[in-house]
Write a structure and sequence with these properties.
single chain, 177 residues, mainly alpha, 3-stranded antiparallel beta sheet, 3 strands, globular, disordered N terminus
């Protein structure tokens, strides 16, 4: 199958710019997690990021359609700040439940709608929701996400979307589409 070389399993050639942006993201995460710019750390990170990039782009070349632009970088940084704020708020809310003499919660499953079109954008949104205490993503079907919410404030999909996903969607939409 020599004709399949350079294409992903779905028959679409991986985007060179998408591959570069994925490598840059992986490499930056490596450097941040290691908190070092010593030559062995940098070289190891570059190689690991390259291998992961090659594997993902070869196996599914269309899932990572992100092109790094100054605007997307600014939105990603803003998203990181929003995520941190929402994470702190959710943790403080959980502390309130844990230390309350009487736990007054109303758990349930709510449906939210997302305007994110890319699979990686939806994945980032689902992970953002799942990583904040008190919520768990149960299923994603097209533009609908089903969430188990520890304390359901509303069952209206529009209001639930505004309360749960809106803080993240603005910035994720600018980064991932």
């Amino acid at each position: 199958m020599a004709s399949d070389r350079g294409t992903a399993h779905n028959g679409v050639a991986p985007s060179p710019l998408g591959s570069i942006s994925l490598w840059l993201l992986l490499f930056a995460l490596w450097l941040i997690m290691n908190a070092s710019i010593e030559l062995p750390v940098v070289l190891t990170g570059a190689v690991i990021a390259l291998v992961i990039d090659w594997i993902f782009m070869r196996r599914s070349g269309t899932w990572w359609q992100v092109i790094l632009t100054p605007k997307s970088v600014v939105h990603f940084i803003a998203y990181t700040g929003v995520f941190f704020v929402e994470l702190v708020k959710a943790n403080l809310n959980m502390l309130r439940y844990v230390y309350s003499p009487r736990i007054d919660i109303h758990p349930g499953i709510v449906k939210i709608n997302t305007g994110l079109k890319s699979p990686i954008g939806r994945l980032a949104l689902a992970n953002s929701i799942a990583l904040t205490p008190g919520s768990l993503v149960m299923d994603i079907q097209d533009d609908v996400i089903f969430i188990h919410w520890l304390d359901v404030k509303t069952v209206d999909p529009g209001l639930a979307t505004e309360m749960i996903a809106a803080p993240f969607e603005k910035h994720l939409g600018a980064v991932f589409g």
